[in-house]
């Protein structure tokens, strides 16, 4: 008799290709690969038109809540978090063997813990980044204590935590005191797909990729570009992504008088186009002050483009850049340091390609093996 396939309930409020970002790409890539081993059901918001259930590449998608914008201004929407959390109770009536849930936006982990307990199933949660009390205070002011309380409670709810980076895993282990097992399964890249894509015919000097949010600090890059122009080095720059800071960044471009150098591309909807655009750049710059991993950094390195990231303490992407050797550079999170780093990288000879053999560790096939082992 053939063994029954395991049923995985993958719970996330956002997933590609409907929404773009590191975690969204992670769940899209993993869902399709896990579907070769198990029945994968994704429970999310209603991102698509039509009925509440759709099928794609062996994965079944369920819309368990209405589509509500993830952000209210520059911050995550509390209303969206509450509605999605309540709707997660619908899994009480779903068929599954294990729940794999995204840790953001925290609130949904409480009903999911209840569902897992009542159904006598395991709750596995992927933690993309750890915030901590200081960041919550900066993010919400006096209300930050409530956010930190929610995060510290949420960390204790899973049966197993999958951390998206070794550094996040270390921080979580300090808080759980071994009461909750923490394993590492980082974000990844599709090396085969990246290799096959040709670069766009017309390139730029500088490219950056990511959601336009305050902590991405694209403003640092813009100020660095203004400094470089003053030094007689105008650099054509492409900003790929969209988000609540779009208008503010366009205004800053105007104020710095670099509108002839900077172009915004919020329309890049496929990974193929993204890789082609990155490959056509001379350097990729990621000035973020906070990253739980930095999948865009990994993609740029795989595209053969040198990468610059900042040394901000909560920017864990800097570890990827450090590991890349001469293919990257880490600098202080200031406009002057960023301008100096860009000039240095553009002036150096080609990077050391042999130093990037370690990228094979991050191929999505290898990562899916690790996640499947935890879920089994």
Task: Explain how this protein is built.
The chain has 376 residues and is α/β, with parallel strands linked by helices. The protein has 14 helices and 18 strands. It has two domains: 7-185, Rossmann fold; 191-359, Glycogen Phosphorylase B (Rossmann fold). It has helices spanning 22-34, 78-87, 109-119, 132-140, 144-154, 166-176, 191-196, 218-230, 246-256, 271-279, 295-302, 317-323, 335-347, 364-375, and strands at residues 7-11, 39-45, 53-56, 59-65, 71-72, 75-76, 98-102, 122-127, 160-163, 182-184, 204-209, 237-240, 262-265, 281-286, 290-291, 307-310, 314-315, 328-331. The strands form four sheets. Strands 3-4-2-1-7-8-9-10 form an eight-stranded mixed sheet, sandwiched between helices. Strands 13-12-11-14-16-18 form a six-stranded parallel sheet, with helices on both faces. Strands 5-6 form a two-stranded antiparallel sheet. The model has no long low-confidence stretch (mean pLDDT 92).
């Amino acid at each position: 008799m053939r063994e029954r396939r395991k049923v995985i309930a993958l719970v996330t409020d956002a997933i590609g290709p409907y929404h773009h970002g590191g975690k969204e790409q992670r769940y899209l890539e993993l869902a399709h690969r896990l579907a070769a081993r198990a029945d994968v059901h994704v429970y999310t918001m209603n991102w698509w038109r039509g009925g509440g259930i759709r099928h794609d590449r062996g994965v079944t998608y369920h819309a368990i809540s209405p589509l509500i914008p993830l952000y209210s201004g520059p911050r995550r929407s509390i209303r969206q978090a509450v509605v999605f959390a309540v709707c997660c109770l619908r899994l009480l009536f779903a068929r599954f063997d294990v729940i794999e849930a995204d840790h953001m936006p925290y609130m949904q982990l409480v009903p999911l813990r209840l569902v897992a307990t009542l159904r006598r199933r395991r709750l596995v949660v992927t933690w993309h980044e750890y915030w901590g009390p200081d960041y919550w205070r900066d993010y919400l002011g006096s209300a930050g204590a409530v956010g930190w309380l929610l995060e510290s409670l949420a960390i204790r709810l899973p049966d197993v935590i999958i951390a998206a980076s070794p550094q996040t895993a270390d921080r979580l282990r300090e808080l759980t005191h071994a009461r909750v097992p923490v394993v590492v399964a980082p974000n990844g890249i599709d090396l085969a797909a990246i290799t096959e894509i040709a670069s766009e015919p017309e390139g730029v000097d500088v490219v950056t990729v990511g959601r336009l949010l305050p902590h991405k600090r694209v403003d640092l890059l813009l100020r660095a570009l203004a400094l470089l122009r003053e030094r007689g080095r105008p650099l054509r720059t492409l900003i790929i992504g969209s988000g609540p800071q779009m208008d503010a960044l366009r205004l800053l471009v105007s104020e710095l008088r670099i509108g002839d150098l900077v172009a915004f591309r919020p329309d890049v909807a496929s990974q193929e186009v993204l890789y082609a655009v990155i490959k056509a750049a001379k350097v990729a710059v990621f000035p973020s002050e906070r990253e739980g991993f930095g999948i865009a950094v990994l993609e740029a390195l795989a595209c053969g483009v040198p990468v610059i990231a900042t040394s901000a303490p909560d920017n864990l992407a800097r570890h990827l850049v450090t590991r890349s050797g001469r293919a990257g550079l880490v600098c202080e999170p200031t406009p002057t340091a960023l301008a100096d780093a860009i000039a240095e990288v553009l002036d150096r000879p080609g990077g050391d390609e042999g130093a990037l053999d370690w990228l094979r560790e991050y191929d999505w096939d290898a990562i899916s093996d690790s996640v499947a082992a935890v879920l089994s």
